[in-house]
Amino acid sequence: MPASSSMNKNHEFARCLESSQISASAPFHWLALAFKDIANAPILSLVYGLVFTLIPATIMYFVYQFDTHLVILPAVVGFALIGPAFAAGLYDVAWELEKGHKPTLMHSLKSMFRNPAGEWGFAVLLMVIMIVWMRLAALIHALYPNVVNPSFEQLSAFLTLGSIVGGILLVTVFAISAFTPQIMMERRVDIMTAVISSMNAVKTNFAAMVVWAGIILCLVFVGFITGTAGFIVIMPLLSYASWHAYIAVIKTKKPRGYE
């Protein structure tokens, strides 16, 4: 193999895609566009919304049915593996609408296998991070006071360390997942390129990403307080908005605007 060809391939691996700078209020515009997508593809949105709703509902059912939290870890691991695939289906719906096409269920299902190595690799990465968090949580729990009704002062070390470690992992997961699935689906790049590009985009647009993360947390909270029924609308809404976030932030050779 020629040396120049080898250098080009090395250059293509784990590169960082350029990102645009956006305003802190941009996430609200993404949500507005996402509502339009739901209106333009209501049946597909409902189908995927039901799938995403059944998953947390099933987890909660098993927790209450068996009166144990031991089922949460295997259930969440399963969700981490299949969740990104179903999200890709919703990204495809938004992408088809962007191109002026009529989205179909079959086309969106095929999108789940557009970049299988990258998508499964990303799912495994999330699963590893989650397992690390479970192990760290078990170690941190050793700091919990061995007394009945501990005071806040006695709990301070446990709460402080738990908050710091949990916060770091939460920020890390958000940074690597904000744009990675969208990048891999459309551009079929390697997982490292997608992850590095996502982290750089989050860093470049820190204010907007804080607002976006806050919106996600609020909507997920609403989903759970409605007994997971709210996820029927919330998950398609967040997925479509995430696609518009990707369009707005990750630069392309040819400018694109989907309103």
From TrEMBL:
Keyword Membrane: yes
Protein name: Cytochrome B6
UniProt KW Transmembrane keyword: yes
Keywords assigned by UniProt, alphabetized: Membrane, Transmembrane, Transmembrane helix
Transmembrane segments: 43-64, 70-91, 120-144, 156-179, 206-225, 231-250
Pfam family, one: DUF2189
Biological source species: Pseudoalteromonas lipolytica
Domain of life: Bacteria
